[in-house]
Fold this protein.
Amino acid sequence: MALHHRAISGSAVATFLAGLALWPPRAVYWTHLTAVVGDGVTLAVVCLLAVTFGAAFAWLTGVDVLSFAVGGGVAYAAGMVAIEVWLLPDSPAHLVWYAVLLACLVGGVALRDRLRKIRGESLAPSGRG
């Protein structure tokens, strides 16, 4: 499986934005859900959303798992440096939570890739082309 530069760039941007949307630094809106259903359910919901986003991104763009993972790694590194520099966090917890989000996103792309292979589809979006 070869790396594709456009796929890596697009994946980096999508991963960075997904991280901001799913777990915004210092503005985590999931605290309201956590108060109602608890930490475990909240984290499961966020992870499920990340897997769904990853699968949807792969379905729409046809990105392969390796290119997405590399782009996601670039976005993770850039995001963690940004958080360290601008927010000066008290603990390294953000390193773990965003790594979990990245793993879920990559998992979604891998799930879509597996489904594509089972169905015998091409890498084109939605199996078209």
